[in-house]
Amino acid sequence: MPHPATxxxxxxxxxxxxxxxxxxxxxxxxxxxxxxxxxxxxxRPDHGAVLATAETLAIMRARMGDDRAGAAxxxxxxxxxxxxxxxxxxxxxxxxxxxSAQVVLDWQGSRAVISGDYKRRPDPTCAPFEPVACDVFVTxxxxxxxxxxxxxxxxxxxxxxxxxxxxxxxxxxxxxxxLGKCQRLIALLRRAGWERPIYLHGALMALxxxxxxxxxxxxxxxxxxxSKRGAPPTLAGEVVLAPPSAETTPWARRLxxxxxCAASGWMRVRQRAKARGIELPLIISDHADWDELLATCxxxxxxxxxxxxxxxxxxxxxxxxxxxxxxxxxxxxxxxxDEGEAAPVETAPA
Length: 350
What we know:
alpha/beta; Metallo-beta-lactamase, Chain A; Rossmann fold; 2 domains; six-stranded mixed sheet; globular
């Protein structure tokens, strides 16, 4: 039985399956790609053939255009399988964003699971992570330090609702990434009883509409209203979602004395929140925290774990104490849009 290290290797374009002749989340255009999810550090344009979930393909088309989301596109439902040159390929939910999937590869009796990005907390907008036993588990390590232990999301949403109650004369503008975090926070607010319209920066409208088309109900959403020069600020007491750092642009001047918020796992780091001028940090992450990374590696029972990006050294050391071999893959280009930190701020029309 060949070890996955004999048939999975790192190339300049990313992780490559030799017998299957395809890449997983390649960082440049390749002839054949399997894509775990729609974030742009994992889903790049101009591949020849693309295999992904139907939701991920829809997200890629929405973000890249039909002509750049793969010359040939094959949608595969979770749990379904295909064969490529003797390699079995399955997609299993990863719990990261809508359509996100782990890639399960079987060849000649050995199995590798490539997680992509994943989280273990419940999310009303996507299917939950499903652990799969394997010989090699390829994991992210975005928050692989013991300091990163995410609180319950209900606690963070309650903080936001309490601030809305205490400051009814101020708009609450929350920095969120356009794919995943935006829709998840909307769904969490709905579950917490917020029934009023939620106002969106123009850069967030399209993907929210796509989520609705794909069956994820988000409730009443409205664009932030346009205002004439010199008009009084608006939306006091309302929830406003925008790309990270949009509150520092002229766009925010139309809002009533905004409470600047951010929803991110990085809000655990007080210096980062302070440096960004965040008044209300909300620790809401779409990635597994330290304990969840270790628990997931134990659940999949893999004797060897490869780490694609993030805090590789800390995770590999912790796994070695559990008699699990670790290996850092040093894939270039992954994690660049993590938690929206590197997402460009798009300004709505004036």
